Amino acid sequence: MLKHRGKETDALIPHATERKVASQASINGLDRPNRDGWLRRLQPTFTDSGEQGTKPCEGGDRERSQVLYIQKLIEVESIAGMFHRSGEWNKEKPAAGRVDQLPSGRESVIHRERILRMTVQLCTALTICLFITEAQPNIFTIMVENSRIIVAVGENALLSVQPSAAVKSGNWEFGEKSIANWNYTNSSHYEGETKLFLTNGSLLLQSVTVPLSGVYTVSMVADSGMEAAANITLSVLEPVSKPNVTANATNPVEYDSVAMSCFASGTAVSYQWFEYNTTINSDNLFNLSGDNSTLTLSKVSRFNGGFICYAYNSLSRMRSYTYQLNVSCGPDRPNLSIQPDLSFYIVGRTIAFSCSAESNPPAEFKWYLNDILLQQTGSELIIDNITSNGTGNYTCVAFNSLTNISNESTKLVIVIEPVSKPNVTANATNPVEDDSVAMVCFASGTAVSYQWFKYNTTINSENVFHLSGDNSTLTLSKVLRFSGGFTCYAYNSISGRRSDTYQLNVSYGPDRPNLSIQPDLYGYITGRTIAFSCSVESNPPAEFKWYLNDSLLQQKGSELIIDNITSNGTGNYTCVAFNSLTNISNESTKLVIVIAQPQNLTILMDNSLITVAVGGNALLSVKPSVAVKSGKWEFRQGNIANWTYTNSTATGQYEGNTKLFLTNGSLLLQSVAVSHSGVYTVSMVSDYGMEAAANITLSVLDKETFVFHFTQMRKKWLKYSRFNYTSVSLTSKVGNQQNERENSKGVWTVLN
Question: Domain coordinates of the chain in residue numbers?
């Protein structure tokens, strides 16, 4: 490739073009030698400014003129052939590379115009070439891309060259022997894997070996007859292999001298050493051989390691594996620790000693107590359940068999016997309530003292409690069922421990049983199921028996269930509880009345529709037909009041704003509002379990509406009262005015 004004261009007179021109037999009767001479005479010469002059064109300017000239010359030959055979265009096909056969008609005119334009261009080019002053011949040179080439064995080497002008022949020499030669039409070269590029004379050597290293000389002859030569030096190198590091001592002892060697195959190998990626140079510790292949440590240290050797030549560079020196060292003075680390230790405790020492290989350990060798070996010594005999000096001795060095450390251990966990016992395992009981507390240890607690409250000698001289015994003169939660605390000067809570299992009872019945009614209808339940305070749990009118029943246990009761079931049901340890029994009785057919329950109402003014009171008056045991009032699916025959309860917003009459279940709503309007439902359960319900509608009106409503009612009342008078009282309150009248049973509203 040639360069012109900083840009790469193709060879301006390529051999392919030259061969194409040469293949054409003649141009207007000129053979190749005469034509070449004619072309050289026509080659233009330009000054640096681009104008015609006597200074020869240099580099790309001259070569571009030659290209233009050659291109136009090809067209001249084509046009000349066409002119020569102008009368036969439609009869004979032109030769390859010439103008195609032209058809007649409009296409013929187009091709004639094309020929005319090409002729004008050709004439212009010829005119320029003919009137340019002939230039002085240039100096012929061979440009070399790289004058020194380094390749690895087995690779290819390209000896790249570029002549400054077209050449007609050339030759490559190596070791004063021609290895390749060529001319513009063919080439020949010596044995071996080579390839010659005729376009520029470059030579490719394939799969090179070390003997092919040396100086290669290329010589060429230009078309002008000028000659030139150039040299290229080829170096074929064997690449460096992966280095291997060895040492003269496999297990050096610390502070010994150690030499490490690095070796790698290859051509002209050099070496460089690193320790932990830091370059090593010769100094007080490190000494390098002349070729750096051997590294000597005058005093090896346990911290020396991570050595790396780099082997390299001008072709490649390889790194060894990291080499670690296994330096034998130590042991240093052992680090002796103890867990837990206390000023003294309690008898029975576990103590763990741990001994560590810097050593390679790992040190061997022995243990001594007061200079007496113990059986345990290894870096740890564990003493379980230590006794007072464990007091003394514990020594750890570390030894390295390779360095023949030993070292030791010592710890003092003091063991004291503390108070053990107290144990509480009693002279009676199952005392009966009101009996006398003595409890004893015991704990091992030195100078043990005792203190008693009941549910975390300190016990002193008083009332039913009596303590012995050393407080180890606690006596209860009269034990109660609630006597329990006793704790004994034993202590001395170094420790204190609490016993488990001791519960006295006091036998007592039974008390009077609690006898209940479901359902709990005044009387029961025949065929109903009745369930009795009996419970009592007793330890151990009481045994139960059931009696009806002093006759023992077969059922046992705390429950008695009678299904489908008959009239014979009327009588006194007695539950008897008995404790076999206390030999105490107790009983409770319930009377049951069974009737054949109860009276139906209905709820009577004075009024089912009540109208009242805002702020007034509304009495929802009802009366059951028989005695009831419970009932409730509901409004808008919410419970607002409920009662039994003994008490009543109001809920929600009605609490404190209502009054319930237990005699009949009537409900008084006080200071009502419009929001209280709606349907109120009362439901009741009779003493015999019968149920009934009734609804009352309450309408709460503002005062003006109420006055109008009352006036209309009054008119109806006056009309109705002419025919039917009773002693029902009607009271109305509108503002501060009260009207009270005798009304018939047709009264609409009861107001208060």
Answer: 2-130, 142-237, 244-319, 335-407, 423-498, 514-595, 704-752
* Segment (H or E) for 710: helix 703-721
Choose among 183, 134, 166, 163: nearest CA to 67: 166
Tens of pLDDT, residues 516-557? 999 888 788 888 899 999 999 999 999 999 999 999 999 899
Any idea which architecture 142-237 has in CATH?
Sandwich (2.60)
Q: What is the pLDDT of residues 313-362, one digit of tens each?
A: 988 899 999 998 889 999 999 999 999 999 888 888 899 999 999 999 99
One-letter amino acid of 541 = P
- H/E segment holding residue 33: helix 32-42
Cα first-last separation, the chain: 128
- Against a cut of 0.90, is the pTM above it? no
Closest by alpha carbon to 603, among 663, 665, 650, 553?
A: 665
Angle subtended at Cα 315 by Cα 313 and Cα 321, rounded to the nearest 5 degrees: 60
423-498, CATH topology level: Immunoglobulin-like (2.60.40)
CATH among 2.60.40.10, 1.10.10.10, 2.40.10.10, 3.90.950.20 for 244-319: 2.60.40.10
Beta bridge partners of 440: 425, 473
Residues 170/179, Cβ–Cβ less than 8 Å = no
Task: Note whether 654 and 672 are within 8 A (CB).
Answer: no
Same fold, 142-237 and 514-595: yes
Residue for token digits 């009596």? 466
| The CATH number of the domain covering residues in 514-595 | 2.60.40.10
Residue type, 37: G
Neighbours of 385 (CB within 10 A): 10
What letter does residue 420 receive in the DSSP assignment?
P
3-state secondary structure at position 477? coil
Q: Of 3.20.20.140, 2.60.40.10, 2.30.30.240, 3.90.226.10, which CATH number belongs to 335-407? A: 2.60.40.10
Strands 638-644 and 628-635: antiparallel
